[in-house]
Write a structure and sequence with these properties.
- This protein is α/β, with parallel strands linked by helices.
- 27% of the residues lie in helices and 19% in strands.
- The strands form two sheets. Strands 1-9-6-3-4-5 form a six-stranded mixed beta sheet. A three-stranded antiparallel beta sheet has the order 2-7-8.
- β4, α3 and β5 form a beta-alpha-beta unit.
- It is globular.
- The chain starts with 6 loop residues before the first strand and ends with a helix.
């Protein structure tokens, strides 16, 4: 993966109260080709990256790809909101696994000067959304980015890294959750396919018997059915934004430079309390 010359941060926020979903019917959203042998020695080769490229290309070729964009739109908006929380301008930014540009469409050129959008699926890059920021589309695998270190001021990624074989341990933290209510399990599976999010694990089963699918749908409905008859699916979302240090931002003090110990803080509070009483 691209390694920054600065700092990686993992952001955590409470889920939003609710999100409107267009044209979803009962799908209601409530927030809360890699070269062979080129992976790192410690990486597990779990996912077929070439299959994931084909799945995403298929999804982007459909007549109405925006029909399945509701989750990616919501997450892209929330990531953009986190970028706005950083008080500075980023001259050059990178979106890893950009899809149709779900993050960049929510940002402005006062915040990001130029956006490099990278995705494994060429059809997604050909079908990007309108945005204000000048962008450069790059066809590349997220596992093998064609950039030198210390190139970008900001790195973002939305709903892409969960199909990457070699993930950093930084993703092992607390997550946000977005719940979507579907008419049934088959509608959920249809939408995952439409998003290009079908399973691409090497050990996946190519086919499931029809009776198995019907039985699974019945069990799912029996165990998780909502009062209105819909069934929920919960998406766990990891928010991660990386940016370089800048002179306009405060840096943490060097280790060992403190002049007051934590043990002295209690005494300071007592002195302040006594001072207030004497006034």
């Amino acid at each position: 993966m691209q390694r920054l010359g600065g700092l990686w941060l993992l952001w955590r926020r409470p889920p939003a109260a609710g999100v409107a979903a267009k044209g979803l019917g009962l799908r209601e959203v409530a927030s809360g080709v890699s070269p062979p042998g080129s992976t790192s020695p410690r990486a597990l080769n779990i996912f077929d990256r070439d299959l994931k490229r084909k799945q995403k290309n298929w999804a982007a070729r459909q007549p109405e790809p925006m029909r399945f964009d509701y989750l990616k739109e919501e997450v892209g908006s929330q990531i953009a909101d986190r970028v706005y929380d950083i008080i500075r301008n980023f001259s050059l930014a990178l979106d890893v696994g950009c899809g149709r540009g779900y993050i960049a469409q929510h940002l402005n050129k006062e915040t990001v000067g130029k956006f490099f959008q990278v995705d494994i699926a060429e059809n997604a890059l050909k079908n990007t959304l309108e945005m204000e920021i000048p962008t450069v589309s790059v066809l590349a695998d997220e596992e093998f980015l064609p950039f030198k270190e210390n190139t970008f001021d900001l790195v973002v990624s939305s709903l892409s890294l969960h199909w990457v074989n070699d993930l950093p341990r930084a993703l092992e933290q607390d997550t946000d959750e977005i719940q979507v209510n579907y008419p049934g399990m088959f509608e959920l599976m249809e939408d995952l396919q439409g998003m290009g999010e079908s399973n691409c694990a090497w050990n996946r089963k190519a086919l499931l018997h029809r009776d198995t699918m019907l039985a699974a749908a019945a069990v799912y409905r029996e165990m998780y059915r909502n009062e209105d008859g819909s069934v929920p699916a919960t998406y766990q979302i990891y928010y991660m934004i990386g940016w370089k240090y800048h002179d306009s931002q405060a840096r943490p003090a060097e280790r060992g430079s403190a002049t007051v110990s934590f043990g002295e803080l209690g005494k300071i509070n007592n002195l302040m309390s006594q001072g207030k009483k004497s006034q």
